[in-house]
Specification:
Elements (H helix, E strand, L loop, with lengths): L14 H9 L20 H12 L17 H4 L3 H9 L25 H12 L25 H5 L5 E4 L3 E3 L9 E5 L7 E10 L2 H4 L2 E3 L3 E3 L5 E2 L10 E3 L4 E5 L4 E5 L1 E2 L6 E3 L1 E7 L8 E2 L4 E4 L4 E3 L34 E2 L3 E10 L4 E9 L4 E9 L5 E8 L8 E2 L7 E2 L4 E10 L13 E2 L10 E8 L3 H18 L11
Parallel strand pairs: 9-14, 16-18
Antiparallel strand pairs: 1-13, 2-12, 3-10, 4-8, 4-9, 4-13, 5-11, 6-7, 6-10, 15-26, 17-25, 18-24, 19-22, 19-23, 19-26, 20-21, 20-24
């Protein structure tokens, strides 16, 4: 099946309207969310333990990646004030997106509800009481952390293929390293299409030493599909129900890794699990995915139609997607962050073709605070798609629900803004007295924004996507008897 790209139309739905219609009004943290709360004391056994099992234990248990287990009352009680602080500030569970603006419906939303946040806060304020032990939920029987696939629950089955990277020893207290490793894909004898792909450290220790893996699928002709991008904290990709990317016999996974050391040697292994479409049911569209939009003070276009040199490895299929069609505009803009100061950088891009945004992920390094994605549509409307807070230790890839994926007509202007904090107030800043430039090391900085885009080849395709979304909104927001809306 050939690549399906996409072109355009000028009208598209306001995303905020779609978010409200489909997701309900957002209640902010700290708002009155527990008016129906009973006068009973909030206890660990009845109220808090179920929340921890649902949202926290997958990481906070023995043998997993959390810094301490949170599976029993004795383990949790000493951390009650800190747990309150982290959940009220929305730091934990890691979900670094501004909940006050933009689209709020995601397939991989791991955040706590406002009611759950209030419950944990009230429990900590009450002195973290245990309550009646008879009300404790049964302990969960967790498999080894390296045996868990998070997308298995969403997709209803384990991955169809699993590829492991060669083991790579990261020496204790060594410098940053960028090994190029390869793994042969086995287990298919004809072209298959990827529905989803999840990345998983082979061991909990591996989690602590890698910044990214960014695997590319290398074809027999030497070209590479770089639509899969993986960073610390990003589980992977679930494509829309009608899109995916092809996998062929003989393909190789090339692991473009960035490793950094801790205080002990680590034999690092990363695993990549693939969920495949049925052999006779390929998707309608090829998801290009992982477009790197730089916000380093230059203007460009949303798609490269001709092959251009790629600074890492072979040229990508069709050129480096998401970069400028104008060859005199460089891929990477410069960054310069003065000591003890804040800095803002911005990139502006015009979409050459209509597209659907399936995945979004910020990328800034240690001094980064947040990125904002905005869209100015051809009819003059402007809106914030999302504001993405940045945590270098947990770089979430936000997977939009299929019926909430932003739709961009041809000619849409995308604005990406990156904000940096090179001061002592930034807890991640290793040295606020340093000038910081653009570079690949962890202590350097970057300012690009990853977007998983699927392009529309014809105006009719894009119009069909808009019509489908409008029909869904009409079902969700029925017209009242007087002929007006339900507002």
């Amino acid at each position: 099946m050939g690549t399906t790209t996409r072109s355009s139309r000028v009208a598209v739905l306001p995303l905020q309207l779609a978010a409200l219609a489909l997701g309900g009004l957002l209640v902010l943290p700290g708002a009155a969310v527990s008016q129906a709360q009973t006068e009973e004391e909030v206890t660990f056994a009845r109220d808090v333990a179920p929340i921890l099992q649902e949202k926290c234990e997958t990481c906070h248990r023995e043998g997993s990646i959390g810094p301490m287990p949170l599976t029993t009352y004795d383990e949790v009680r000493p951390w009650a004030p800190l747990i309150k602080e982290k959940v009220v500030s929305l730091v934990m569970p890691p979900w670094p997106i501004d909940r006050t603006i933009g689209v709020q419906r995601f397939k991989n939303d791991r955040s706590l509800s406002d009611e759950q946040i209030q419950t944990i806060s009230d429990w900590a304020d009450a002195g973290a009481p245990l309550g009646d032990v008879a009300e404790l939920p049964a302990p969960l029987e967790w498999p080894e952390w390296s045996d868990v696939w998070r997308f298995e629950e969403e997709l209803g089955r384990p991955p169809d293929l699993v590829v492991s990277s060669p083991a790579y020893m990261v020496a204790a207290n060594s410098a940053d390293d960028w090994p190029w490793l390869e793994s042969q894909i086995e287990g298919i004898d004809e072209q298959r299409w990827i529905k989803a792909a999840e990345f998983r450290p082979g061991t909990a220790d591996t989690w602590n030493v890698f910044h990214h893996a960014n695997p590319g699928i290398v074809k027999l002709d030497g070209t590479s599909d770089g639509s899969l991008r993986q960073t610390r904290g990003n589980e992977g990709t679930i494509y829309a129900d009608d899109s995916g990317t092809p996998l062929d016999p003989g393909d190789i996974v090339r692991w473009n890794m960035h490793m950094y050391a801790i205080d002990r040697d680590v034999d690092a292994v990363l695993q990549l699990g693939f969920w495949l479409y049925p052999k006779d049911e390929p998707p309608t569209y090829r998801a290009d995915g992982a477009d790197g939009f730089s916000c380093s003070q230059y203007t460009g276009h949303g798609f490269a139609s001709d092959p251009l040199p790629w600074r890492f490895g072979p040229e990508l299929r069709g050129g480096p997607r998401g970069l400028s069609t104008n060859p005199q505009v460089v891929r990477q803009g410069d960054l310069l962050l003065p000591p003890n100061s804040w800095a803002t950088y911005r990139g502006v891009y015009v979409m050459d073709r209509a597209a659907r945004l399936e995945i979004a992920r910020a990328h800034l390094h240690l001094r980064g605070r947040y990125q904002i994605l905005e869209a100015v549509y051809p009819d003059g409307r402007w809106e914030v798609i999302n504001k993405f807070h940045f945590d270098h230790d947990w770089q979430t890839g936000f997977l939009y629900e299929d019926d909430a994926m932003p739709l961009f007509p041809k000619g849409t202007v995308l604005i990406v803004t990156g904000v940096f904090d090179n001061t002592a107030d930034n807890p991640h800043n290793p040295d606020p007295d340093q000038w910081v430039v653009r570079g690949d090391r962890t202590v350097d900085s970057m300012c690009h924004f990853r977007m998983g885009l699927t392009y529309f080849e014809t105006e009719e395709e894009f119009q069909a996507a808009v019509d489908e979304r409008e029909a869904l909104l009409r079902r969700e927001r029925p017209v009242s008897d007087d002929g007006g809306g339900d507002e």
